[in-house]
Each structure stands twice: as structure tokens, then as C-alpha cells.
Design a protein that fits this description.
This protein is α/β, with parallel strands linked by helices and about 220 residues long. About 45% of the residues lie in helices and about 15% in strands. The chain has 2 domains: about 130 residues, Response regulator (Rossmann fold, 3-Layer(aba) Sandwich); about 80 residues, Arc Repressor Mutant, subunit A (Orthogonal Bundle), CATH 1.10.10.10. The chain is globular, with a radius of gyration of 17 Å. This is Response regulator transcription factor.
Length: about 220
Amino acid sequence: MTRVLLTDDQPLVRHGLRVLIADHPRLEVAGEAANGEEALRLAERLAPDVVMMDIRMPGMDGIEATRRITASPGTPPKVLVLTTFDDDEYVYGALRAGASGFLVKDMDMDQILAAIETVAAGDALIAPSVTRRLIAEFAARPAAAPPPRPTEGITAREREVLTLVGRGLSNAEIATRLHISVATAKAHVSRLLTKLDARDRVQLVITAYELRLVTAPPA
């Protein structure tokens, strides 16, 4: 059973998510928080597997709460950020803060449930309808971003794979593009995670933009 902490300053949003999760046989709501400070306290006390985190909240926002939760000692919960499509200029910051991905609030219910399980299993997930556009926009102007991860040990092929990861391609799509097997594509991604000391695929996407391997969404 995957335990989920819901964090949103809108009670109706939390209620909707609670009802949605209650009908899922492998998910349960561990608790609810109305702001970042409360999310921090409940994450420590309840030890959920996943924290669904809104970004814009009074007091401590979702970016700072995400940063603190993912930096907690031991095995902190995964953070899955909720955002809106047009006006949320904090998505890139949330990913840099350690979120394992983000969703848009108007996604299909089944997609939201699948995303929770995906993140709980240790994978990263970014809503495909907004990923390339949003990350490209904000990665193109990372005002105070730290220096890119060292890449001296990256091979030419791994750099190709990193570029395609940055463009949002799945392992199967990378395999097709590079005329390799899916297993080989997955192996390249795994080596990139190790060499770049990246926590998950989201961090590989960020690194691809930091290195300017990808500077605009694909056509």
C-alpha cells in the first residue's frame, strides 16, 4: 500500500484527491496539509511514501517544502508536484529542489493515480503535455542555477542519450531513434544516472538543459 500525503491550500482540491485515492486498492491517504510548514511536520510524523505538493501556498511555498522534505535524513518520501499549465513559473525550481516530477491539475484521474504509483516505485514522471515546453522555458534562464554536473566521463553515445532524455523521450523512443535495443537504451540511462550522480530521470532532463544539449522544445 502506497501512503500519500496531500498538500494543497484549497480544501476542495484535497477533498477531490482524497476521494480519488480512496477508490484505489493500492493507495491510501496518510494525511492532509494546507501549506508547506504543515507538510514538513506531517511528512516527518507520518512517513508517507509520496507527498503530493502544490506550489503556490501561503507561508512556505511548495518549492521550499520540497527542498526540505527531499533533504531529510534517511529515506525521505518522493515529492510529486501539482501545478497549472500556463502561469506556474516555479516548476523548474521545484524540480531542482528535488521533486520526482510534476502533474497538472486538470490531468485525467487515471493518469494522476498512475503517476503516484510511478513515483512511489522510484521512477520520475513529468506530465508529457507540458514537460518540454515548461522545462525548456525555465531552463533557458536559470538565474541562480548551480554549475552543471561534471561530465568528463560521459561517452559520445551517452551524450546522445542524455540529449534525447532531455527532449522527453522514453527508453523505447530512444531505442528507436538510435537503432538500439530498449535494454541498451535503459543501460545507457542507468550509467548516466550513476556518472552524473543524478537521483532520477528528472535530474537528467535538468542536466541536459544546463549543458545546453537541449535549448528549445522539439518541433
